[in-house]
Amino acid sequence: MSATVSREGNASVAGVNGPVLGDADFRFLREFVLQHCGIALSEQKRQLVQGRLLRRLRALNMKDFGSYCDLLRRDPDGEMGDLASAISTNVTSFFRESHHYDLLEKTLIPQWLAHKRRQGDRLRIWSAGCSTGEEPYALAMVLAEALEKHGAPFDAKILATDLSPQALQGAREGVYSLDKMDGISAERRRRWFLRGEGSYEGLACIHPRLRELVTIQPLNLLHDWPMAGLFDAIFCRNVVIYFDKPTKERLFSRYAKQLEPEGYLFLGHSESMHGLSDDFDLVGRTVYRKRAS
């Protein structure tokens, strides 16, 4: 093992498995990630960050972490998505936390459709942190089935956003391995998936009808939101678990402003809004309803 000392006294160490993340570079990365992604990295995360970012160094043909930090200083927006993908864990599945979908299917969507049909309004759901698409496409299945029962055309859409370019690419492709089908009923598998052929042999492809309902866009939750209209429901599950308290408070406040009166916010099973917002009431398991103004 050899080491040299770079700017700010940062040790740029070359180990047997590649460069080692030194103090100054890790300090910069922690501050950068907190500022731009809202993710608080503890000292205990250093080895995890080093291991995951080594792949980015190899992909970019960089020899050390100092070079990668320089890239972030020069072009923070250009590398943001790949950095966030590297340091966060994208674990998702179809119909994860099924009680959320049950509430939508049996109660909320029928109520919304009945009310909005009289008002001539639209229905909008946002999957914030959509990862590789399992969540928004599961939402689309429930919505498409409700629209069929409703029996008439209706302006209903799902917005799916994420910071990770790799995750968004997977969502846009809408192609999944068969082991991803475990949470989907046999009836829905037959109805909403196409059998892959050729290079997609052994895979399942999302039905075009679901693609029509889902709009997929890149978005950093900490930056400006371009959406003009309000949402009936926002799914932000297993996302805020990475954020520090001030970031959570700001995000929940922004969600409240982006929701219709008495709109719903769905969080992940290990997440809570307790002590972080006065804009919502807890109405179910990690289900929050915006308070009437």
TrEMBL record:
It comes from Dyella soli. It catalyses: L-glutamyl-[protein] + S-adenosyl-L-methionine = [protein]-L-glutamate 5-O-methyl ester + S-adenosyl-L-homocysteine. GO terms for molecular function: protein-glutamate O-methyltransferase activity. S-adenosyl-L-methionine binds at N90, T92, R96, E135, D162, N220, L221, R237, N238. Residues 21-293 form the CheR-type methyltransferase domain. The keyword Metal-binding does not apply. This is Chemotaxis protein methyltransferase. It comes from the Bacteria. InterPro entries: Bact_Chemotaxis_MeTrfase, Chemotaxis_MeTrfase_CheR, CheR_C, CheR_MeTrfase, CheR_N, CheR_N_sf, SAM-dependent_MTases_sf. Its EC number is 2.1.1.80. Signal peptide: none annotated. Keywords: Methyltransferase, S-adenosyl-L-methionine, Transferase. Transmembrane segments: none annotated. Methylation of the membrane-bound methyl-accepting chemotaxis proteins (MCP) to form gamma-glutamyl methyl ester residues in MCP. Gene3D superfamilies: Chemotaxis receptor methyltransferase CheR, N-terminal domain, Vaccinia Virus protein VP39. Pfam families: CheR (PF01739), CheR_N (PF03705). GO terms for biological process: methylation.
